[in-house]
Amino acid sequence: MKNRQYHFFPFLLATSMLFSGAPLMAQSTAKKQEKTKRSWIARLFKKDPQHKVSRDSKRENEAEYRFSRGVGFYIQENYEDAIGEFNKALTLSPKNAAIHYKLAESYQQLRQADKALEHAEAALSLDDKNEYYYSLLTGLLIENNRYARAVEVFEQQTEAFPEDLRLLQGLAILYLELGKNAMEQERRYEGSSSKLGKKFRKDRDDYFQKSIDVYGRLEEKVGLNEDVTMQKQQLYLVMGEPDKAIAEGDALVEAFPEEFSFKMRQIELLRELGKDKELEDYLKQAAEDHEDEPYPHLLLADLYKKQGRNAEAEQEMAKVFDNPKVDVDVKVQTAALMLQQVRTQESKNNVLDLALRIVEAHPDSPQAYSILGDAYYVNGEVEKARDAYLSSVKNDNTSRELIWQQLVRLDAELNQTDSLTSHAMEAAERFPEQGVFYLYAGGGYLMQENYESAVGALEKGKEVAQRQKDVNLEAEFYAQLGDAYNGLKKYDESDKAYDKALEFNPNNAHVLNNYSYFLSVRKDKLDKAKTMSEHLVRLYPDDPTYLDTYAWVLYMQKDFKKARKYLEKALLTSKDGTIIEHYGDVLFQLGETEAAVDQWKRAKEQEGTSKLIDKKIKDQKLYEE
What we know:
Layout: H1 30-44, H2 57-75, H3 79-92, H4 97-109, H5 113-126, H6 131-143, H7 147-160, H8 165-189, H9 194-222, H10 226-238, H11 242-255, H12 260-273, H13 276-289, H14 295-306, H15 310-321, H16 328-341, H17 345-361, H18 366-378, H19 382-394, H20 401-413, H21 417-430, H22 435-447, H23 451-467, H24 471-487, H25 491-504, H26 509-522, H27 526-539, H28 544-556, H29 560-571, H30 577-589, H31 593-604, H32 613-619
Helix pairs in contact: 1-2, 2-3, 3-4, 4-5, 5-6, 6-7, 7-8, 8-9, 9-10, 10-11, 11-12, 12-13, 13-14, 14-15, 16-17, 16-18, 17-18, 18-19, 19-20, 20-21, 20-22, 21-22, 22-23, 22-24, 23-24, 24-25, 24-26, 26-27, 26-28, 27-28, 28-29, 29-30, 30-31, 31-32
């Protein structure tokens, strides 16, 4: 079986100090250290029989004095002088564990590992009941990659302090780290030497098994534990023993049958391992024991669908979506995920059916109507989608911005300008710092030819965009303002707005087209209009609208032959009434009156012609607005 990737869980961080290379005492503040060291000095140098300090008062006093000076230098981080004083104290009191301990700490600070280890070993040999001595020694051993000895010391410490459960955790982690190191070696040598690869693989599994055994000892003291179970499962998976991993999860679930999360973890493990039969049994039992939990039903539906059991899959989905006790957010998230995966009309219909079920079960939920709107839109039912979004915002006092954006976007798509302006302005009031709503409102007013209201909305939105330094949105406002001011016949303001928009984007097709066309209609700045429309046609050489604009600028410059050329090209792909009428006007100017009238008659059959079209046809003459 291939090596599996595995992860070590957050509870292990609590014992990370064991691998830091520094003893626990080193974690305290200098002030706390000083207080602690002074208490040791008092205990060690007051004829404490535990340490067999010399009874010779002179040697005793001198040793205490040197030790105290050493502690002072240590606190000042003057480790070399500290070592000098500690060594003098050690000469006077050679069997004093505390002096060895402080020497070990000092050498550690100077990164003299061998001497630090020598004194740490000495300290522990003189006093094997001091937890700080164990911590210092194990930290140094691990820091210097002497794991075998670290294990021995750790095992000794667990025997010395059998009630300290953190030690079992630390020992388990140490074995785990040894296993990880062996695994890295296995990966390194597997390709070049099969013997070495097998050796390191065996070492890996041995260390991992020892880690598991220590976790077992921990469980004997505290009972089954979620984190320990998960750690053992991961180790078994790495070792290629999935059945043992499953058994660990089974035991935890059996011990805590009311804990739904334990069952879900076991379910995820069975899914990962592809144990479909065991998975189905687990899911059925979980669904029975926790009837208002949606996930067992959803996972059963997914399993049945993969197995082609579609009817059963739909039944499981219905149990979730028809149940009003299931949180609406879970249903909405599930339906949203399904929407991202739809490929066929049948799948679109299925999601729509589920969205309708959500609304039926949660008729007052804005989220329910929101997902219904999404489902309708994916099915191409734009008007129903818009109505669903409208129901969503009506039911939502907090008013979600994205739903309002969907609503006004579909108003625009449906060309329902009254709804667009009303909804966009309401959204702008709710979200005054979202300039896009002013843009939608302005666009709606423009379509209504309500230019005053358009200018009002667009100017407000432009201010928002400027405050937020959103240059792209600001450019859009200037483009629309050009249209709005032109509608009000405020041509100076219109031209300034268009020019400003082109400063942001010289290739803005909307601005290039409208600006050049309006200039041509006004017969103003025709050279500028020609330059802009020529640039537009170079950008979009086959667009009939832009070809018509360029032709009309040429028409106003009385270049009728060239105008005819571009209009004929536009008519290859368009039957727009305006373009056909313009073509008739050009033909009339070229003296082809009969052909011109025929084109005017064709134009009248389409939309978009001028108010003079009937008079042109009747009188067979050209009239211009």
